[in-house]
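As agreed, record minuted below.
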Amino acid sequence: MMMAWLVMAAIAVLSVLYVMRALFGAANRPIKERDSERFIALREQEVAEELQAGRLTQDEANQLRDDLALEAQYIDKQQFYLIKDLNVTRWVLSAMVAVVLVGALALYQQLGFSKEVAFTEKMLERSATEQDISEFLAYRVARYDRAEDWYYLASEQVLAEDYADAVESYQQVLQKLDTDSPDYINVQVELAQAMFYNHDNTVSEPMRELVTQALQSNPNHVKALGLMGIVQFDAKRYKEAILAWQKAIRLGNDPQARNDLLSGITAARKQGAISEEEVPALISHRVQLSLTLTQGQLAADDVFLVYATANGQTMPVAIQRISSAEFGAPLVLTNLDNLMPGKSLAEVEEVDIVVKHAKQTSQDLSQGQIVGYLSPVPSNSDKIFNVKVAL
């Protein structure tokens, strides 16, 4: 894109230089023969011929020659003023072109389009560094000062573990967002999380207030429930922490987040001596899997459906969708991963494990090709079962 801008700028400069060269070249080019001079010479020849033929007297011929001389002087004077006026016009035109070009370039730089073009080119080439991204986001904030610009900056600051600045950026987002905006609660929760990180993973009163406000607006917000479990755990209300985390697990669909929440629940049960009779376990059955690629290569747009079916049934009793980036990570199918109520791992003793391969652009992932199979597998076990996958 930057190369395209440079090419267009070069074409514009060359075009202006060509026009100016033509104008000044025409002004400085010597005129070998003018139409007025040819006309006067022709008239003098006619007068001489008329005098020789006797149709004019000498006095009449002299008078005509005097008239021609005056006419020639008048024409030369008019041409002089015309050339002078054209020279002034050329200089004015050249000055205007120069002002327009310089002004356009200065305006282009002032508005920041050059920075946006340069950054876009780096992103397309995938050569942008973390420093490039941070500087560009800071520039966008300074230029536009919009909620979305502050949000992108805050997200980048969290990734860079610059939590203090991230807190300030999220606060700017909330100031600029309308409280009725559907994004307001999400920003509240992300601000609370940044506050938690900024205080060395400890709960602060502002964080507690933000999480409470978010859950008052949306009691089923998964991330807010996870943070509320942290708040309750910090206050040594372990039962409430378990209940909050269990609700987050039921509503969420992120496998990694689920594992983190399960670890928190285990810690809360231990710290609070809370038995499963007091708070029943959310997950009663689990099948732990690892996928091993034995043939073929993974592509970035690969998608896999990993599911368990009971003998004689086609509908999965547990299913998860994973990307190629998640292929090598441990995978756990639980009784919460069912598609239909009453049909889960808890209702069967053994299952068959099926792995289907598709692409992200596929209209129906369930129509993908079966690339892995393992049978039979107990519906609840601490053992990790390996499924071989051939693409």
About this structure: The chain has twelve helices and seven strands. The chain has a mean pLDDT of 82. Strands lie at 286-295, 302-309, 318-323, 331-334, 350-359, 369-378, 384-390. The two ends are 38 Å apart (CA to CA).
